[in-house]
Design a protein that fits this description.
By secondary structure, the chain is mostly helical. The protein contains 4 helices and no strands. It has one domain (about 5-40). It has helices at about 5-10, 15-25, 30-35, 35-40.
Amino acid sequence: MKPALRLRTILNSENPKMIEIKKNLSKIPEFVFRNNLDKFIDS
């Protein structure tokens, strides 16, 4: 899946874990977030 599409899917998710991640997104530099996207998803 394309990272942007995948990211959009995650950000639109109502999964409680994803909601928590969304709350913390503003604290995470974009490049760090991109590099750790898979870890967020798989954890």
